[in-house]
Amino acid sequence: MFWLWVVLQGLTLLGVLNYWRHLPVDRQEEAPEGVVVLLSVRDDWNGGTELIARLKAQTVRFRLVIASSGGCAAAEALAAREGDWVQIVRAGLASDEGQKVHKLRAALRALREGDRYLVFVDADIEPPARLVGRLLFPLVRGKADIVTGYRLLLPEADMQAALVGAVEMQLATLPRAASATMPWGGAMALTREVAERLDLDAALAGRLSDDMAIGLAGWRAKLRLRPVRDLLVASTLQGHGALGFGVRQYRHILTNSAGMWLIACAVVGVQALGWGWALGWGGWSAVAVGYAAAVGRVLVRRRIIGGVVESGQAQKARRSLWWDMLAPFAVCWAHWGMQLAAAGSRRIRWGGYDYWVKGGKVVRMERVE
Q: What stretches in the chain show pLDDT beneath 50?
C-alpha cells in the first residue's frame, strides 16, 4: 500500500508539472475582422466598470453584445453611452431553460451578417488584455473548432473561500488534452461556421448549462476542442456561499453527464481515501510522502499563477495554496464531499432561480424571492 501511495502522489505532482511545462512561451494572438463578444448579465448588474475597462483594453477590436432579460438599467445606460461598440439584446424571461442560456440564444439570433468569430465571456471575470486575441489565435490558424480558457478563483480573505479555491486549483492545473477538454463559458470562442454546424440555438434550447451543452455537442460532432493553458482567467470568489458554488459546479456535470461525474468522483475519491489511510494507518513515512508532494505542487502552482495573471490577482489566488500546503488532506476531502453532495438533489440554484434538471434539460424552474 505504501508504494501505491508513493505512485499516486507522484502522479499528482507530475500532472501539475505537465501543465507548467506546456505553458506557451510565445503567446501569439490574432485580430481578425468580424469579432463579436457575447456577455450575459443579470438585471441587477452594476455596469461592471472594471470589466468594461478591461474589455476596452483588449488588443482586438470587436462589438460587445450584452444580453439581458430586459430590465438591466446599467446595461441600457452603457449602450446609450457607448452605442458605437455596444449592442443590447433584450431576451425577456425564460420559462423552460436557464436564464443565461435564454439570453445567449437571443444574442445568437441577433448576430449580424459580418459576425464571423464568437467570443463568450462571463460578467464576473477580470480578463487580461490578451484574452480575445489568444482565444482567436487557434481559430484563425485553423488549429481548433472551439477554444477555451479556464477560471482562476481569487478567494476573499476567508477560510471557506480559500478552501474552495484550492479545490478549483486542482482542476485549473490539470493536464489539458483536446480529447478530454470541456469548454468554460467564462472565456470561450468558436467560429460562426461552427455555431451553425452545431445548430447552436437548438443545442442550447432547454438547457441550464451553456458550456456543458456546447462542449457535449462539440464532442458528439467530433470537433477539435482546444484549451489555451496560459488563459487562467481571474474570477473573484466570495466567502459566503463558496461551498455551495463548488457543489453547484458538480451538479451541472452530474445532470448533464453522469459518466463524467462518476469518473471525477473515482479519481478524487482514490486520493481522498488514500489520505485517510495515510493519516490513520500509514505512519509518518506515508504522511511525509503526501506532504512532500503537496509542497511540490504548491511550488509549481505558484510558478504557474505568477506566469499567467497580474501580480495583484496572483497574490489573491495564492491564498488557496496555503490549504494545499498545510492541510492537503482537507482539500481532497472537501473536493470529494462537493462531488458526493452534488448527487443529493437535481435542484440547482443559480442567478436568482431554482432549476430542476434532468438529462441536462430544465424540467421545472422557480424564481427565488
A: none
Q: Which of 211, 190, 118 lies closest to 147, judged by CA?
A: 190
Question: How far is C-alpha 309 from the chain's CA centre?
Answer: 15
Rounded Cα distance, 355 and 365, in Å: 4
Q: How many CA atoms lie within 13 A of 202 on its CB side?
A: 5
Picking from 267, 268, 287, the residue whose alpha carbon sits closest to that of residue 277 is 287
Residue indicated by cell numbers 462531488: 339
End-to-end distance of the chain based on CA atoms, in angstroms? 52
> What's domain 20-259+343-367's superfamily in CATH?
Spore Coat Polysaccharide Biosynthesis Protein SpsA; Chain A (3.90.550.10)
Report pLDDT for 362: 98
C-alpha distances in angstroms, 43 versus 66, 74, 99?
A: 11, 8, 11
The reported pLDDT for the residue numbered 138 is 97
- H or E element at residue 17: helix 2-21
Give me the helix-helix angle, 283-308 and 258-277, nearest 10°. 130
Q: d(Cα 172, Cα 323) in Å, to the nearest integer? A: 16
Query: The pTM is what?
Result: 0.96
> Cell digits for 34?
468580424
Nearest CA to 97 among 357, 346, 351? 357
Helices (H) and strands (E) in the chain, counts: 15, 11
d(CA 246, CA 107) in angstroms, rounded, equals 28
Q: What is the 3-state secondary structure (H, E, C) of 294-350?
A: HHHHHHHHHHHHHHHCCHHHHHHHHHHHHHHHHCHHHHHHHHHHHHHHHHHCCEEEE
The residue whose grid cell reads 509518518 is 284
Question: ∠ CA(44), CA(47), CA(49), 5° rounding?
Answer: 145
Per-residue model confidence as pLDDT tens digits over 57-72: 999 999 999 999 999 9
CA distance 97 to 91: 12
DSSP category for residue 206 = T
Q: What is the reported pLDDT for 179?
A: 66
Listed in sequence order, the residues at least 6 apart from 249 whose beta carbon sits closer than 8 Å to its beta carbon are 338
Among 163, 156, 325, 119, smallest CA distance to 236 is for 156
